[in-house]
């Protein structure tokens, strides 16, 4: 009887401790645009999404400062890396999804001069749960030749 009572108390204590975690909040962080080293070629938007209290999907990214945006993903197929359009990105509860060089990213065409002069652009990230999150992305200058940091697709051709 004592052992059973101890197990019940331990289970209740664990349940109470789990409830002490801060509530999960869907958010977008660490956003930046890596400018393409080639004029008139697309640049890339990178960022991290942290999942909230329930699974959702990132459905779109928009900006009044950008002419065109497309979500893409780098995939391996038959030993070759290639780009594929990405309709949505699954964001798990309390998970982390990184849009980064060589993986998921948003191709960016036509950054307006106002954003270039400010050094940043405003974006709206729209999720399947109805949430819209505004975030500012710094615009990073072209990386030195010979580094992968200047290649918006992480070495992939579009």
UniProtKB/TrEMBL annotation:
Keyword Repeat: no
Entry superkingdom: Bacteria
This protein's record includes keyword Signal: yes
Signal peptide range in chain numbering: 1-20
Pfam families per the UniProt record, alphabetical: PCuAC
Keywords, sorted A to Z: Signal
Gene3D superfamilies cross-referenced by the UniProt entry: PCu(A)C copper chaperone
Cross-referenced InterPro entries: LpqE-like, Lxx211020-like, PCuAC_sf
PANTHER family to which the protein is assigned, alphabetical: BLR7088 PROTEIN (PTHR36302), COPPER CHAPERONE PCU(A)C (PTHR36302:SF1)
Listed name of the protein: Copper chaperone PCu(A)C
Organism: Blastomonas aquatica
């Amino acid at each position: 009887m004592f052992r059973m009572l101890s197990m019940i108390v331990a289970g209740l204590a664990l349940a109470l401790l789990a409830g002490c975690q801060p509530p999960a909040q869907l958010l977008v962080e660490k956003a930046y645009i890596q400018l393409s080293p080639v004029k008139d070629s697309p640049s890339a938007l990178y960022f991290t999404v942290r999942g909230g209290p329930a699974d959702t999907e990132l459905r779109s990214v928009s900006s009044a400062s950008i002419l065109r945006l497309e979500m893409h993903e780098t995939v391996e197929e038959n030993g070759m890396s290639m780009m594929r359009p990405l309709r949505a990105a699954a964001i798990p509860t309390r998970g982390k999804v990184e849009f980064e060089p060589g993986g998921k990213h948003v191709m960016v065409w036509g950054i307006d001069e106002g954003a270039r002069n400010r050094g940043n652009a405003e974006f709206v990230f729209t999720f399947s749960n109805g949430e819209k999150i505004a975030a500012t992305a710094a615009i990073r200058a072209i990386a030195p030749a010979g580094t992968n940091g200047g290649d918006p697709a992480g070495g992939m051709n579009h």
